[in-house]
TrEMBL record:
It comes from the Bacteria. The keyword Ribonucleoprotein does not apply. It comes from Leifsonia poae. GO terms for biological process: adenosine catabolic process; hypoxanthine salvage; inosine biosynthetic process; nucleotide metabolic process. Keywords: Hydrolase, Metal-binding, Nucleotide metabolism, Zinc. Residues 20-365 form the Adenosine deaminase domain. The keyword Zinc applies. One of its GO terms (molecular function) is adenosine deaminase activity. Its EC number is 3.5.4.4. This is adenosine deaminase. It is an enzyme of class 3 (hydrolase). Pfam families: A_deaminase. Its cofactor is Zn(2+).
Amino acid sequence: MSENNHAYTLSDGTSILDLPKVSLHDHLDGGLRPATIIELGSEIGLELPASDADALGAWFAEKSNSGSLVEYLKTFDLTTAVMQTSAGLERVAREFVQDLGADGVVYGEIRWAPEQHLGSGLSLDQTVEAVQSGIEQGIADVRAAGRPIRVGQLVTAMRHNDRGLEIAELAVRHRDNGVVGFDIAGPEAGFLPSKHRAAFDYLATEFFPATVHAGEADGLDSIRSALLDGRALRLGHGVRIAEDIVIERQDDENTYVTLGTLAQWVKDREIALETSPTSNLQTGAIAAWGDELIDHPFDLLYQLGFRVTVNTDNRLMSGTTLTRELSILADAFAYDRTDLEVFQLNAAASAFLPLEEREELADIISAGFEGS
């Protein structure tokens, strides 16, 4: 990125970069460095739209601002192309963790779809092992630089394919080798989580946690299926849960609303919403409310007590970092350090970690916010 993270400060002068953060929704194939794509692409003869890293980064940002999730997803053809070998996966994962550490992330979950990385003959298990190797190298690099970090994998099945159960079994097979959860991703509309009910049934028998992309490119039926069929503990984006909230009236100080039964359930059960503000604008996820950040239902959901978290989704496509996402939310809704701490504590409480480790993570966050 050409932007300087150090420029992002709160009104009290606090550097957002220096605050400890938790990243729950961050795609491996959406977080490559443009220079790495160019270098790895040249090794396989991949034709790219630009040969300069800054220009390539700008191309990704431009193509990602279409307002359509389907068009947005097409940019991944280039990134996945250079992630078909163990070496490629390992390098991308290592750099990914390095970039998380540089952004002040103390705990991150990286989601990716192994079935998209078999083009050069790797097995599903080999892809997971390569990514884990890269993650462990990245963790060592970050810690050697004096910064704490932990990272887990979210193994993802593509919802428009028929490999859900196979990928769920893969995830469970590697639960002691870095994999902390399961996800489904890809085109949401027309591909309800119920299509992968067998996978989710299997995960339930193994007591293995799932997050499900829902409420981004499709509405309440998708969210309902994520909860009923997917037993989702978190909703990937989930912003369209706001469609189940009716604003009755507003005055200068208050907004009076009525929550539908689905929204009430998500709120009362503290099912985390993995919102990604910039991405939500790019893909049209908040089109029902507007096309600017101030129109995002994030603040409404936050004020109503939903467990909102802040994420990047795809750092390359959105030209962003977690520091930047927090900064633009703070600017739009006048959030202060206390608000940003709530978002991080929400994420810590929703991390796919044992309870004791989630509590330790919350302590790290609180200590970091007090000391910054």
